Amino acid sequence: MVKNIILGIKAYFGAFSLISKLKLWKFFAIPMLISFVTAILIGISAYGLSDNIGYYISKLWVWEWGKSTFATIGNIIGGLFIILIGLILFKHIIMALSAPFMSPVSEKIEAHLTGNLKHNHRKTNFSEQLWRGIRINIRNLSLELLLTIPILLLGFIPIIGIISTVLLFLVQAYYAGFGNMDYTLERHFKYHESIQFVKRNRGLAIGNGIVFMLFLLIPVIGVILVLPLSVTAASVKTVEALQLKN
């Protein structure tokens, strides 16, 4: 799996030049706008809600001594919690809403890589692609939250907390890569078949998602460029994995 993680990361190095070569930037205009607007809305929500969550956390401390210190810690925890949930929601929202725009991109990349301009893949329209994206990302969001909560609780245990941070990052990376790979897989497999394919190639999903998550740490530019580069990189490695499977 480590080898596939590295391959998933390395795919990004040629993504920018491939987008320019195939003249794909125009397809990313609406998804980049979706990313930017979603990031702003989540940022505003995080700023407004962090103090509220911190307030309720501080109420857990019933003693007078150390109350101000615990209130400060509560605000920090509240802010981190909102940022984490915001990152989780951000990636699933933009990947779900961008599905109809990303599928044609992955199709053009696949045609370029395989040399086959006429394919016999599953035919899907705009609404079907959107519904597929929403369905996949609701499923992934539910599972991700289910895994995130116990990992967060582990974070309060000394020493183990460091491991939980790594696990949390890898879980987020996996589901980000999952969504990016499905733009290609939706032409080849039905819903459940896609899930099984990604499970067999989870290293590629994690590698793609690692860079995806790191891009989100770059102010403004990161949220704008994250989809074009991550979808292109995921499409290249997914097509290669499909060819190996066949």
Question: What does this molecule look like?
Answer:
This protein is mainly α and 246 residues long. It has helices at 2-10, 15-21, 29-58, 67-97, 99-114, 126-154, 160-185, 191-200, 202-215, 221-245. Helix 1 (2-10) packs across helix 9, helix 6 (126-154) packs antiparallel against helix 7 and helix 7 (160-185) crosses helix 10 (221-245). The longest helix has 31 residues, at 67-97. The two termini are 20 Å apart.
Number of strands: 0
The unreliable regions are none
The rough form would be described as elongated
**What is the terminal-to-terminal distance?**
20 Å
What profile does the largest beta sheet have? none
Please state the CA-atom Rg, rounded to the nearest Å: 20 Å
Output the helix-strand order.
HHHHHHHHHH
The class by helix and strand makeup works out as: mainly alpha
- How much helix, percentage-wise, in residues? over 70%
* Beta-strand residue fraction: under 5%
Overall mean pLDDT? 86
Number of helices: 10
Quick gist of this model?
By secondary structure, the protein is an all-alpha fold. Helices cover 80% and strands 0% of the residues.
List keywords for this structure.
246 residues; mainly alpha
Summarize the topology.
Elements: H1 2-10, H2 15-21, H3 29-58, H4 67-97, H5 99-114, H6 126-154, H7 160-185, H8 191-200, H9 202-215, H10 221-245
Helix pairs in contact: 1-9, 2-10, 3-4, 3-10, 4-6, 4-7, 5-6, 5-10, 6-7, 7-9, 7-10, 8-9, 9-10
